[in-house]
Amino acid sequence: MASVALSSHSRFFSPRLCAFQKSSKTPVFQSIRHPIPCKYTSNLGFLEFASSTVSRRSMKSFLRADDSDSSVIDLKEDSQINENKSEGGTALKNLSNLKALIKVYKKAILDGDEKTVSEIEAMICIIEKEKNELVQKVDALSADITSGKDKYLRLKADFDNCRKRSDKERLTLTSVAQEEVIGSLLHMVDNFERAKQQIRPETEKEKKIDTSYQGIYKQFVEIMRSMQVAVVPTVGKPFDPSRHEAIAREESQEFKEGIIIQEVRRGFLIGNRLLRPAMVKVSAGPGRKKTFTTTEKSTGQPTAAFD
Fold it and tell me: Which residue stretches does the UniProt record annotate as biased composition, category Polar residues (predicted)?
């Protein structure tokens, strides 16, 4: 049995056999199982001395010598780990490096290399810490995006409301300015109306002057109409307190109660808004028979322009 083991050992590790033969200590042969599967054999004979044991690093050196390809890979992995550690312990950037790290970690556990195990565990802790920091950053960025989106929607709604409010205020301001300008010109309309009622041209020259005035008044009326200015209806219409201003109530055989019987001063509208209410007299209904004369509306071309 000893000769068989010795011959097997001499076939694989003849240099070590010579070195062991020079030792003065009695060798003891023991058959153990290889800690990691080897492509050459699964059972090898090792020499064990009574005074000392083979160190773990010697076992690791033996395993690397037994499998040269695995040794090259392990050296690359150790170099990668040292490089990552020298750069501040940053995490591995791709899945292949992570798989290699796990492989080295498993091998270190099997070899009992506590230093390598502790280094890899420290690196895993660093990776976990960096992962948690990245998760927190992603959550913070997601919250910022959501908050920014909500803020954008609020600002957009505020801008739309502000624009609508500005447009409305602009239209209101334009309308108010227009009403003020037109309202200041209504007195001119009243003067033209009174002049038409009082002046009775007799000579040819007076008729020409009256025609000129009426032509100017007609142009003025056309401008007012282009600005959507209209006359408030009065005589024969029901009294409307929102458009009419009653200055008297009189009995009338011609009109029913509540109907306007006379216009004292014209009222005007601009669009649907009231510029000036019309001053009128309202019928109080039929009473004693009484001759009643209504003041007719002034006739002529300018008045017809508003009607």
Answer: 292-307
